[in-house]
Amino acid sequence: MKVIKAINNNNLCVLDDEGREQIVSGKGIGFGKKYGDTVDVSQIQKTYLITDSELQKKMISMLKEIPFEYMVFANDIVEHIKKEYSGKLNESLLVTLSDHIAFAIERKNNGMEFTNPLLDSIHDSYPEELQLGRYCVEQMQKRLGIAMAEDEAGFIAMHIINASLDTKMDDVYKITKLINGCIEISEYYCKEKFDRESVEFERFLSHLKYLAQRLFQNKPLPNAFGDDDAFSVMIRKTCAAQYKCALCIREYIEKTFQKTINGDELITLTIHLKKLTKKS
User: Fold this and answer.
1) What domains lie within the chain, and their CATH numbers?
2) pLDDT tens digits along 255-278
3) Helix (H, G, I), strand (E, B) or coil at 48
4) Are the CB atoms for 121 and 180 separated by under 8 Å?
5) Measured distance CA(225)–CA(30) in Å, rounded
6) CB count, 10 Å around CB of 187?
7) Most buried of 63, 116, 155, 242, CB within 10 angstroms?
8) Residue 104 and residue 114: Cα distance in Å, rounded?
9) Alpha carbons 164 and 146: distance in angstroms, whole number
């Protein structure tokens, strides 16, 4: 590897044998290094290959500010998340989570802790991500000696959600709020608490995640039933109560988020609600 530039004493921007630009870290690896120097591979502790140029710029900027031990910790956490997580994650997670962890520790050391208003919603809608967030909080206590509240696990979960949806962090707030609102409306209208462990609820939740993601990414919704008026009429008649609930969900989405769902989506929600209430 050849040095492109030294970021600081512990980090280098290098060019590997295949001509790829990478970032390598190691205690003292950047000390006295200049352009064109060869890197001693035995000093490398971590290697970061980031293909997105904007992300790479953010990473380099962040490495100048974040203590080396925090960066190593964040990298280990991200590797664990990638290994355990059931879905796909984009490469932004390392950058956003490293920055968040360093900032959270700084806030904690200054006596500042934030509450997470979406914690209950994340618990219901994204239990896998929240569990990984809790793992991170536990490791912060074990490895760094810093105790964080449950709210912090929720914030970390949101970064995982963001990386899985490949969307903006602001949209993660909106998506989580929309999903939780739809579930609350459904349970209120149906006058029952849905079984969170049932297959029917998992399918309903998965559909709400899909719906919310497409709405906030401004992607068109499917129109699978658009040419089958007889089927739609039959569903509206045989599942009248659930269809009315779906109409309430549509009104909530329109008034709260200024987003519109089509007739096909109303039928799909109705079918999911029918299966949920039938199960109950």
Assistant:
1) 2-49 (2.30.24.10), 68-166 (1.10.1790.10), 189-279 (1.10.1790.10)
2) 999 999 998 899 999 999 999 886
3) strand
4) yes
5) 61
6) 14
7) 242
8) 9
9) 27
- Tokens at 136, concatenated: 């991170």
Tokens describing residue 257? 């988020």
**Tokens, residue 88:** 């796909």
Does residue 279 surpass a pLDDT of 60? no
Question: What value, to the nearest 5°, has the Cα angle with vertex 102 and ends 97 and 105?
Answer: 120
Could you list the beta-strand ranges (E) of the chain: 2-8, 11-15, 21-25, 46-48
Asked if 25 and 48 count as a contact pair (C-beta separation under 8 A), the reply is: yes
Instruction: Taking residues 197-217, report their average pLDDT.
Output: 90
State the average pLDDT for the chain.
88
Give the whole-angstrom CA distance, residue 276 versus residue 280: 6
CA distance 126 to 118: 11
Query: Pairing mode, if any, of strands 11-15 and 2-8?
Result: antiparallel
Residue 200, amino acid:
E
